[in-house]
From TrEMBL:
<comment type="similarity">
    <text>Belongs to the UbiD family.</text>
</comment>
<dbReference type="Pfam" id="PF01977">
    <property type="entry name" value="UbiD"/>
</dbReference>
<dbReference type="InterPro" id="IPR002830">
    <property type="entry name" value="UbiD"/>
</dbReference>
<feature type="domain" description="3-octaprenyl-4-hydroxybenzoate carboxy-lyase-like Rift-related">
    <location>
        <begin position="100"/>
        <end position="296"/>
    </location>
</feature>
<dbReference type="Pfam" id="PF20695">
    <property type="entry name" value="UbiD_N"/>
</dbReference>
<dbReference type="InterPro" id="IPR049381">
    <property type="entry name" value="UbiD-like_C"/>
</dbReference>
<feature type="domain" description="3-octaprenyl-4-hydroxybenzoate carboxy-lyase-like N-terminal">
    <location>
        <begin position="10"/>
        <end position="87"/>
    </location>
</feature>
<dbReference type="Pfam" id="PF20696">
    <property type="entry name" value="UbiD_C"/>
</dbReference>
<dbReference type="InterPro" id="IPR048304">
    <property type="entry name" value="UbiD_Rift_dom"/>
</dbReference>
<protein>
    <submittedName>
        <fullName>UbiD family decarboxylase</fullName>
    </submittedName>
</protein>
<feature type="domain" description="3-octaprenyl-4-hydroxybenzoate carboxy-lyase-like C-terminal">
    <location>
        <begin position="303"/>
        <end position="423"/>
    </location>
</feature>
<dbReference type="InterPro" id="IPR049383">
    <property type="entry name" value="UbiD-like_N"/>
</dbReference>
């Protein structure tokens, strides 16, 4: 059975020792982030900050490590990619929630809207202010009406105004650009506190024509139940903890940033559009959610890695069926460093696959292709392949003037460049055998156990 809402997942986390309540006062400014960083460094649990100076509890770090991500998917390391891949192949459409939706137990509009009453942390000392980092934005393509869901950060400017940042290659950014071009308002809703499959569905790379509610339904194995917003026609998950409804104002640009981001660096401040909040609705006894982002590995990286790997693998396999696996590493922000395992079928195919990966919406800087005998999740093995299966003059190439990953701190403005490394054995040529002692795994050697 899928988790119906955030609360169902929190009970599983609690039962598994993966969620701990903090009942003493913890400050939203910096101390929440310190607690999260400390728990993460100790491979500790997610944290529920009950006394944070507001009337709402704040839970954070719920996808803070791979173990909790696997609990969310109800999968193991062995089954995870297959689980996601099959779900993407079996989309399930949303249904309308019947009855009064829990996410609108409490409705605040007009003068009652006050973002400062929410437990929004300030994470890093140079951040421009408090940030909503665990928000899922619902927006629609102004031309087609196709809904998109994605994680986007929001800076709290004042009680009714948020700062907006979306990379131009992400769908919320594309929807904003279209709305400006067509001179129509863009409505949005920030959804906070949902069942885990909806959270991970945001990160599935499924193309601009996909309706993300179908992707989320596929991952859940059951339809998402939606309800209409109170100040727009957008539909949002009925069992969410909070919904913040807004209209984008691209004329009223305000300084947004800096924010310590997933690259491990602060992104500089700059003028960005604002979101004018039209309503805040929430459940009875609602739980707010926070999320630490910054130098890898943070919850941001954990959220992206499984859906990114599964969906980019599927995209590449349509053209290159002998690609067996892909690693999009946390150290590369789950974006700029990609390792592919593949058995090339003809000379030059590895290079074609590298170019296809470079053309994906990841905008990577490094793409390495290795033979399938290399464990692509162990950097030591990948480095071994790059050391002894590469002739640098022949197998390494640079593609110049590629589109940059928007928050990469070291690029040539909007442009970047990308390195491809074909670390597969030369196609169709003799190559030395790997010298490895055979059958050592099954060799009987009780003496070493006794010596421990
Ligand atoms: C926690 C988190 C926060 C994110 N914040 C932003 C953001 O502020 N702006 C942005 O463009 N992308 C952000 N991303 C990346 C996008 O959510 C992600 O690439 C997503 O796949 C975009 O999907 P879409 O293009 O279908 O909306 C964030 C990702 C995560 C996991």
């Amino acid at each position: 059975m899928p988790y119906t809402d955030l609360r169902a997942f929190l009970s599983t986390l609690r039962q598994s020792g993966e969620l701990v309540d903090l009942i003493r006062p913890i400050a939203l400014q910096y101390d929440v982030a310190k607690a999260l960083a400390k728990s993460s460094a100790a491979d500790g649990p997610a944290l529920m900050f009950k006394d944070n100076g507001t009337k709402f509890p704040l839970v954070a770090g719920i996808y803070g490590n791979r173990r909790r991500a696997l609990l969310a998917f109800e999968a193991t390391e062995e089954t995870i990619h297959d689980r996601v891949s099959k779900a993407i192949d079996a989309p399930i459409g949303p249904i309308d929630f019947s009855g009064p939706p829990p996410c609108q137990d409490v409705v605040m509009t007009g003068d009652d809207v006050d973002l400062t009453k929410l437990p929004v942390p300030t994470y890093s000392p140079k951040d421009g202010g408090p940030y909503i980092t665990a928000g899922i934005v619902v927006s629609e393509d102004p031309d087609t009406g196709i809904p998109d869901i994605g994680n986007y950060r929001f800076q709290l400017h004042d009680s009714r105004v948020l700062g907006v940042f979306s990379a131009p290659n992400h769908r919320f950014g594309k929807n904003m650009a279209k709305a400006i071009q067509r001179k129509v308002p863009l409505h949005g809703a920030i959804v906070i506190g949902v069942d885990p499959m909806m959270a991970f569905a945001c990160q599935v790379q499924s193309g601009d024509a996909s309706n993300d509610w179908f992707v989320a339904g596929g991952l859940r194995g059951e339809p998402v139940e939606l309800t209409k917003c109170v100040t727009s026609d957008l539909k949002v998950p009925a069992r969410a903890e909070f919904i913040i409804e807004f209209v984008v104002d691209s004329e009223d640009q305000r300084e947004e940033g800096p924010l310590g981001e997933y690259t491990g660096y602060y992104t500089p401040a700059g003028p960005k559009p604002t979101a004018k909040v039209t309503a805040i609705t929430h459940r009875q006894d609602a739980i707010f959610q926070g999320l630490l982002t910054g130098k890898p590995i943070t919850e941001n990286h954990v959220l992206k890695q499984i859906p990114f790997e599964a969906s980019i693998l599927r995209q590449l396999q349509t053209q290159f069926p002998t690609i067996s696996d892909i690693a999009i590493t946390s150290s590369g922000g789950v974006q700029v460093y990609v390792v592919i395992a593949m058995t090339p079928r003809y000379e030059g195919e590895a290079r074609q696959a590298i170019l296809a990966a470079m053309a994906s919406n990841l905008h990577p800087k490094w793409v390495v292709v290795v033979d399938p005998d290399i464990d692509i999740r162990r950097s030591q093995e990948v480095e071994w392949a790059m050391s002894f299966r590469v002739k640098p003059r022949e197998d390494v190439f640079v593609v110049d003037r590629t589109a940059a990953a928007p928050l990469d701190p070291y690029t040539d403005g909007g442009y970047s460049s990308a390195v491809g490394i074909d670390a597969t054995r030369p196609f169709g040529a003799e190559f030395p055998d790997v010298s490895e002692v055979p059958d050592w795994r099954s060799f009987d050697l009780p003496e070493i156990e006794r010596s421990r």
